[in-house]
Automatic annotation (TrEMBL):
Its EC number is 7.1.2.1. This is Plasma membrane ATPase. Residues 624-634 have a biased composition (Polar residues). It catalyses: ATP + H2O + H(+)(in) = ADP + phosphate + 2 H(+)(out).
Length: 648
């Protein structure tokens, strides 16, 4: 256009430099990195250490959380009711069953079950009293049992073993009538939410730790009670409010999973792990596709590590962002496959290595608190991105139109100052006060760019109109009695500089708001940086305040022209508010009505809501009937979680 207008190439190069300086968001990598770094530090203070900063974005968009039961939803502090112990061997009492279970436990470096078994004895030293330990077989996910080979006071060799009932039944090669009786007791325990632990013993006549020994004898069953955490039910309810569907993944029996789900308000729509492979004996499940089954289920029982991997894979194929908790070596593949792998407190090194987030505190409330914090972090990044797009379009389009229509050349140095002050002000957004998204959030680029284009185009046109008013008309002189600055390039440039810089920095208060900007209080640092930038803008427009006002064409006997300029900007801002409000309000309304969710996500959300409307899994009914644990008031949750209830 410059050759057509017969203008000097130097002016064209300077205008091109103006567009390059104003059109490239050079601060974007820094602002986003600083925002995530500060957010990562905040998460670590809440007990969630992020190994990969981009996991913060994925955590903000997580809509399905697959959670372990033991230790996450429950306390993992086991106890045994001696009155419910079942004995299957003649000449053996309940105390001896407990003693054999304690002998098959570690007395040091104990897990929860070992600690419970040894703790049931009057004196923990009784677990090794009168015997000499020869060999201890630790628990492993394949055998699912522990065993101790020992020598008694008379020199006879014995083995004691405890573990999963099915494994012990197979080990003892029990007869059918014994199997039926054992399964009957297990079902009775499971209906009450109790896990079963089987105990067996064996004579070792060969007196060798490697010898197979004699036949194993099934001794008894122990009921293990693992109470839910006091805040689990309330935390799950808050997770559902946040749009996060929590699925219980447990290795326990189906009946135990359903009972625990009922107590915690998760629902009882749970299935055995065999359903994942299409091998369920339930005829109603045969016609249901596995993908749909996994998506609608509240949880799965009898799960092995390979099942966890399959669950994550199927959910990801349905376009869900999946979080998975784990603590063991065998959980590593599922943790690595998940969008957000979460290693719980006391997880193994292998699980921590495969995860994206490592928890330093137990319980589900830490995860939900981290979800809220990550959404705040993500909201700050999205606010800045909309701001950057808007400013880029505003600078490029506005100055291009002014240069082409009126052949007015804006100084590149002034644009550089605007860019520096803008970037310095916007840095403080990393600690701004924001409202987290009420539902899982993600980079909706169409929405971000559409909003940026609308805001940027509007601001560019307002700048063009403002320049036309001061360059071609006496509007301000006639209406407000101020001195005309028409055809005074230096004064026009100063006025245009103030208009562009002030509006550019004030725009962040619009893009950061999810409703009307004047009702959402910004952070102290952001306001301070904005006011400081405005002071620097005024000082930059002239060597001192008096000269600055004169450059703007203000006569000393008239009102403050700068104040008049601010009034013009206030009118512009008021027109801008409905535009931004519509851009934000429309997607939120769509989300709350389910219109903004994928069909599969809507089904899961509506399914969970229907469960609560029918009263299935209601924790209130459970606690009214039985009150073995404190009521879930949410006192243990971070304040941000409790405040989320006020969101629309």
């Amino acid at each position: 256009m410059f050759p057509i207008q017969r203008r000097k190439y130097r002016a064209g190069i300077e205008n091109l430099l103006v567009l390059l300086i104003g059109g490239i968001p050079i601060a974007m990598p820094t602002v986003l990195s600083v925002t995530m770094a500060i957010g990562s530090h905040k998460l670590s203070q809440q007990g969630a250490i992020t190994k990969r900063m981009t996991a913060i974005e994925e955590l903000a968009g997580m809509d399905v959380l697959c959670s372990d039961k033991t230790g996450t939803l429950t306390l993992n502090k086991l106890s045994v009711d001696k009155n419910l112990v079942e004995v299957f061997a003649k000449g053996v009492d309940k105390e001896h069953v407990l003693l054999l279970a304690a002998r098959a436990s570690r007395v040091e470096n104990q897990d929860a079950i070992d600690a419970c078994m040894v703790g049931m004895l009057a004196d923990p030293k009784e677990a090794r009293a009168g015997i000499r330990e020869v060999h201890f077989l630790p628990f492993n996910p394949t055998d699912k049992r522990t065993a101790l080979t020992y020598i008694d006071a008379e020199g006879n060799w014995h083995r004691a073993s405890k573990g999963a009932p099915e494994q012990i039944i197979t080990l003892c090669n029990c007869k059918e009538d014994v199997k039926r009786k054992v399964h009957s007791v297990i079902e009775k325990y499971a209906e009450r939410g109790l896990r079963s632990l089987a105990v067996a013993r064996q004579e070792v006549p060969e007196k060798s730790k490697d010898s197979p020994g004699g036949p194993w004898q099934f001794i008894g069953l122990l009921p293990l009670f693992d109470p839910p955490r006091h805040d689990s039910a309330e935390t799950i309810r808050k997770a559902l409010v946040l749009g996060v569907n929590v699925k219980m993944i447990t290795g326990d029996q189906l009946a135990i999973g359903k009972e625990t789900g009922r107590r915690l308000g998760m629902g009882t729509n749970m299935y055995p792990s065999s359903a994942l492979l299409g091998q369920s004996k339930d005829g109603s499940l045969e016609s249901l596709p596995v993908d749909e089954l996994i998506e609608k289920a509240d949880g799965f029982a009898g799960v092995f590590p390979e099942h966890k991997y399959e669950i994550v894979k199927r959910l990801q194929e349905k376009k869900h962002i999946v979080g998975m908790t784990g603590d063991g070596v065998n959980d590593a593949p599922a943790l690595k496959k998940a969008d957000i792998g979460i290693a719980v407190d006391d997880a193994t090194d292998a699980a921590r290595s495969a995860s994206d987030i490592v928890l330093t505190e137990p319980g589900l409330s830490v995860i939900i608190s981290a979800v809220l914090t990550s959404r705040c972090i993500f909201q700050r990044m999205k606010n800045y991105t909309i701001y950057a797009v808007s400013i880029t379009i505003r600078i490029v389009l506005g100055f291009m139109l002014i240069a082409l229509i009126w052949k007015f050349d804006f100084a590149p140095f002034m644009v550089l100052i605007i860019a520096i002050l803008n970037d310095g002000t916007i840095m403080t957004i990393s600690k701004d006060r924001v409202k987290p998204s009420p539902l899982p959030d993600s980079w909706k680029l169409n929405e971000i760019f559409a909003t940026g284009v609308v805001l940027g185009t509007y601001l560019a046109l307002v700048t063009v109109v403002f320049f036309w008013l001061i360059h071609k008309t006496d509007f301000f002189t006639n209406k407000f009695g101020v001195e005309s600055i028409r055809n005074t390039e230096f004064k026009e440039m100063s006025a245009l500089y103030l208009q562009v810089s002030i509006v550019s920095q004030a725009l962040i208060f619009v893009t950061r708001s999810r409703s009307w900007s004047f009702v959402e209080r910004p952070g102290f640092l952001l306001v301070t940086a904005f006011l400081l930038a405005q002071l620097l803008n005024l000082l930059d427009a002239g060597c001192n305040t008096h000269r600055c006002l004169c450059q703007l064409g203000l006569r000393k006997d008239q009102g403050n022209r700068v104040g008049l300029g601010w009034c013009y900007l206030a009118v512009q801002h008021c027109v801008l508010l409905p535009t931004r409000h519509f851009q934000v309000l429309h997607p939120i309304c769509a989300e709350w009505k389910g219109l903004g969710q994928p069909p599969a996500e809507q089904d899961c959300f509506h399914h969970q809501r229907e469960l609560r409307q029918r009263g299935e899994g209601s924790t209130m009914g459970y606690r009214t009937e039985n009150t073995p644990w404190p009521s879930s008031t949410g006192a243990g949750l971070p304040h941000t979680v409790q405040r989320q209830e006020q969101l629309p």
